[in-house]
Amino acid sequence: MQGIVHPHIAARSFSARPACPSARARQAAAALAVATTVGSLFAALPIQAQAQTPASPDASPPSPWRIYAGPAHIGFSTSAEVRAGGQLVPGASATADSNNSLGFGAIYDFHPGWSAELALGLPPTTALKGTGSLAGAGTLGKVKYGPAVLSVRRQLWDGGPVRPYIGAGINYTLVLESRDGFVSDLHVKNGIGPVLQAGVEVPLDARWSFFVDAKKIWLKTTATGTLPALGGAPAHAKVRLDPLVVTAGVSYRF
Description:
The protein is α+β, with helices and mostly antiparallel strands.
């Protein structure tokens, strides 16, 4: 009969119908969202690459190397044990005149808060003068010397307008020339000794700083010669110099 539709035919007819317009809209919206997300990711790649680009040279970390220079004052705390003809001269001693020179050197920052310093100076000349029972002898001789200090420094703190530090190291003093005075054929040996230092740095900008530095050096040496006033008797002295070197100047970071 024409008015009766078989159930299987009706089910096939229902399943063959196309999706409704609302389903198409949802699929299109989902596809658009995916496309938008992918597009945003690709658009962000140049920005991320730019953010990961190394900083310009102006923003690079500062160099660990510094050099410095400035006037230096060397003051001695001198004492001596003097022998003439092998006999101790009672009450005899000596002093060394203070010196002014130009100090300079280099500093290398090998670890945050830690640095190594090599300190040098233009060679000054000091006069050795007799004291005590040798006061009447006047100038015993003159010595031209070249000081050098190698030390390790510890910055107490890096921030702030004033940056103090302390350090310790070793000094080697090279005697370049000995000149006769009351003592003839004067010969003064090179010396070596420990060093303690302290100072402050005041940054002026990213590269330049002002500094004041003090180094206490414990230094002994020996001097030999002859004494014409005593018929050419041999002279021998153990001399303790123990200088304090104070330097003020400017440093430059590369």
